Amino acid sequence: MTAPAPRGPGLGTDDRGTDAARRSRVLVTAPALAEALTGDRPPVVLDVRWALGVTDGREQHRAGHIPGAAYVDLESELAAPPSAAAGRHPLPEPADLQAAARRWGVRADRPVVVYDAVGGTSAARAWWLLRWAGHDDVRILDGGLAAWSATGRALDEGEVRPEPGDVVVTPGGMPVLDADGAADIATSGVLLDARAGERYRGEVEPVDPRAGHVPGAVSAPTTGNLAPDGTFLDAAALRDRFAGLGVAGVTAAASAADGGRAVGVYCGSGVTAAHEIAALATLGVDAALYAGSWSQWSNDPARPAAT
């Protein structure tokens, strides 16, 4: 688990790293995590079990977790309180995130591995936030808890109370969009909608005030990033997927000033969109997160909804 190197601006392999190297800066396998936990500099492991409408993540953690993993509450620690103006999962205040990360035992000199039981779709929120906060050495456990258990490794039970960490949160490590920025990228670049297709099309809307999508956005359900076993698709399959969505030849959002077209991602509330950003990062594309996502957009009557 080495420190990350700079990410390349496009989907093709470039002189800044191979597909395997880029992938290893975002994901870690269960065997590699197990080996790292026995080393001189073991990673901090965070259990981010969460799903929309499911509130028993802490109970699941107590019943069985990767040894040493601290539980992270997505609703209260990875988001600020919800509001119509900011959405269902606004970005937390930096001071609040720093206090939470220190409770989890996150240290500036230690790698972090995050996992869940849903293919990384909730753990990716912690991955994105810690990278946004300036901690570059963060990875998602590829395949999550199921991948760990499939190797025959044991789980621990009960509470985990780690030694307090010392991480200092410095926002700005990942690009962020507001509603105006998302609207701009939808016309000048590529804006991916990571929700289920039926929500994008406006056929159903179980959570937010209005159905539909940001005009100009492209449907790209997060589940399309995963293989049947819950691991991320390989680089070739992901590259084909995003090329089919119009991302081929598009530069990273951070490089848009160089004449490229930017990539943005949103979902319902900025959680599963982080998973799509992680998938793009394995290919060297730094996509921007529209943090308020559809929950913010649909609460503003001045914003149009396409179906």
UniProtKB/TrEMBL annotation:
It holds the Pfam family Rhodanese. Keywords: Repeat, Transferase. InterPro entries: Rhodanese-like_dom, Rhodanese-like_dom_sf, TST/MPST-like. GO terms for molecular function: thiosulfate-cyanide sulfurtransferase activity. This is Sulfurtransferase. Residues 39-157, 190-306 form the Rhodanese domain. It comes from the Bacteria. PANTHER family: SULFURTRANSFERASE, THIOSULFATE SULFERTANSFERASE. Residues 1-21, 206-225 are annotated as: Disordered.
